[in-house]
């Protein structure tokens, strides 16, 4: 049974913040693992993974990619004086959730490893193009995470919303929420090939509703409304395309009146916008 707050108590939805030393790590591809027709896992390795930490479900690292025009990878460097930015070259970076990290001591294969999952959507975007052609030995640079926000304490239930880009974060929420927390997940994805991304143990961890975009738009908000009232012991996390999440935010924060601490929504990307800042407000006209 889900744990409940004492009668008369109010869940604070406090999420502990943990800071990590800032570091830039030069790594190499150990292997590439196709997960679905549109999702692939790139496993990175290297001595510079020593000290890497990612404790929160929605942490992000900044990943630096080679310039598609030249093949040159321009990225910051960690120096004794701090982070040094490149003086020349084209810097191309995107934010990604670390899917899994294995220390050298815990990895049966030997050596520390970091998994980053990519959505493949053609070769127009530099990240998708790089991931589609990645092979063992390729170089990649990551920076961060600068910090982690842990799962909230004391909640009885969690509602998780995601599209393909947020499936790594959804997976981490499923892994990190306490076993007694009841979880409902709504996933807005392209088609029936995508659910295979989640391993069986995580699919069994939650009541997951897969919404296939091929069946029509605006399904995520309708499915969320269909869940009925959201009580004061339920935490809501959502991430994905920003335009899709904006009306969901209005529903949760304005129509239902949920406090800001009870809702965490983040636009990981936005149609027509290159390299969206996921810290940017979903709806600048309606700030908290």
List keywords for this structure.
single chain, 5 helices, disordered N terminus, 5-stranded parallel beta sheet, alpha/beta, 2 domains, Rossmann fold
Description:
With 288 residues, the protein is an alpha/beta fold. The chain is globular and about 50 Å long. The chain has two domains: 18-146, Elongation Factor Tu (Ef-tu), domain 3 (Beta Barrel); 150-269, 3-Layer(aba) Sandwich (Rossmann fold), CATH 3.40.50.80. α4 (219-226) runs parallel beside α5 (242-255). The protein has a seven-stranded antiparallel beta sheet with strand order 7-4-10-2-3-9-8. It has helices at residues 126-133, 167-176, 200-203, 219-226, 242-255; strands at residues 17-19, 24-36, 39-45, 61-65, 77-79, 82-84, 92-96, 98-102, 113-119, 139-143, 147-149, 157-162, 182-189, 207-212, 234-241, 263-269. β12, α2 and β13 (182-189) form a beta-alpha-beta unit.
Biggest pleated-sheet summary:
7 strands, antiparallel
What is the CATH architecture descriptor of the largest domain?
A: Beta Barrel
Structural Rg:
19 Å
* Order of H and E elements: EEEEEEEEEHEEEHEHEHEHE
Portion in helices: 10-25%
Uncertain ranges: 1-8
Number of domains: 2
Strand order of the largest sheet: 7-4-10-2-3-9-8
What is the H level of CATH, i.e. the homologous superfamily of the largest domain? Translation factors
Task: Report the top-level CATH class of the largest domain.
Answer: Mainly Beta
- Kindly name the structural category: alpha/beta
- Count of DSSP strands: 16
Count the helices. How many? 5
> What portion of the residues fall into strands of 2 or more residues?
25-35%
Tell me the span between the first and last alpha carbons.
33 Å
User: What is the residue-mean pLDDT, rounded to a whole number?
Assistant: 92
Shape: globular
CATH topology of the largest domain: Elongation Factor Tu (Ef-tu), domain 3
């Amino acid at each position: 049974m889900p744990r409940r707050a004492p009668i008369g108590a109010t869940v604070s939805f406090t999420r502990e913040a943990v800071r990590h030393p800032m570091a830039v790590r030069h790594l190499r591809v150990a292997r590439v693992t196709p997960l679905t027709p549109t999702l692939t896992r790139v496993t990175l390795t290297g001595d510079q993974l020593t000290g890497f930490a990612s404790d929160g479900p929605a942490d992000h690292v900044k990943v630096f990619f080679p310039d598609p025009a030249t093949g040159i990878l321009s990225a910051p460097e960690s120096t004794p004086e701090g982070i040094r930015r490149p003086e020349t070259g084209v810097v191309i970076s995107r934010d990604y959730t670390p899917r899994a990290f294995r220390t050298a001591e815990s990895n049966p294969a030997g050596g520390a490893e970091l998994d980053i999952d990519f959505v493949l959507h053609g070769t127009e975007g530099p990240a998708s193009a790089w991931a589609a052609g990645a092979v063992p030995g390729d170089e990649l640079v990551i920076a961060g995470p600068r910090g982690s926000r842990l799962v909230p304490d004391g909640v009885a239930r969690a509602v998780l919303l995601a599209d393909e880009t947020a499936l790594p974060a959804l997976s981490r929420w499923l892994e990190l929420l306490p076993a007694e927390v009841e979880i409902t997940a709504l996933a807005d994805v392209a088609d029936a090939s995508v659910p295979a991304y989640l391993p069986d143990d995580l699919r069994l961890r939650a009541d997951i509703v897969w919404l296939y975009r091929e069946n029509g738009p605006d399904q995520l908000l309708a499915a969320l409304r269909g869940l009925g009232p959201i009580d004061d012991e339920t935490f809501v996390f959502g991430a994905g395309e920003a335009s899709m999440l904006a009306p969901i935010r209005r529903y949760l924060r304005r129509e239902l009146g949920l406090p800001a601490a009870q809702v965490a929504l983040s636009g990981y990307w936005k149609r027509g916008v290159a390299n969206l800042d996921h810290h940017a407000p979903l709806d600048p006209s309606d700030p908290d």
